[in-house]
Amino acid sequence: MYSVELMVEEHENILKLLTVIQKACCGILDGRDVNDGDFRKIIQFARNYADKHHHGKEEQILFQEMSDRLGEIGVKLIQHGMLVEHDLGRLHISELEKALDQYRDDPQTIFKLGILTEAMGYVNLLLRHIDKENQVVYTYAERNLPPDILQSVDQRVKAFETEAEQNQTQETYLKILQELQSKYPD
To answer: In terms of C-beta density within 10 A (0-12 exposed, 13-18 middle, 19 or more buried), how is residue 7 classed?
Structure first.
């Protein structure tokens, strides 16, 4: 299924960002300064690629169909599982931004701790979340949604992707990811 393959591929890019975040946090623990610019780029990628672009397709298309068509199990899996975790990820990113602002204005250790806490909270949440989606949610959708709905999901995801390409979403944020990966190599 095109849309599931694409979402798994996007997960790979998000996992690369999570590795960057871990390396940036370890650098701080090793005594390096907080690189405000790099963390702002991390936030930009998280908000615009991971959330708006990737979660946008999930929430507006695939998860909506699952909630509408897969009964109580679909509703619980999506509304009480995946969507709650999406919101928790947004909270970690907002709190990370707040901690960065506080540290920039008043570089105290407590605000540095906030940066590390929220950044790693986001990493740990998304590592588990991505695994659940790849191993459980997507396969459940593929097995249980009717073929015509799966085809409709694919068509709508392709249209979403085309619009994003016209806005250079993928190009912009994958370039940011490459830049960050070059600064925090494996």
So the answer is: buried
Give pTM, 2 decimals. 0.97
Closest CA to 153 of 69, 46, 85, 65: 65
How far is the C-alpha of 138 from the C-alpha of 119, rounded, in Å?
26
111-114, long-range: CB within 8 Å, 24+ apart, which pairs? 112/28, 112/34
Would you call 31 exposed, middle or buried from its count of C-beta atoms within 10 A (0-12, 13-18, 19+)? Answer: exposed
Name, in order, each residue with C-beta under 8 angstroms of 42's C-beta and a sequence gap of 6 or more.
17, 20, 21, 24, 96, 119, 180
Query: How many domains, in total, are found in the chain?
Result: 1
Assigned token pair, 111: 């605000």
CATH code of the domain containing 116: 1.20.120.520
pLDDT single digits (tens) 48-105 = 999 999 999 999 999 999 999 999 999 999 999 999 999 999 999 999 999 999 999 9
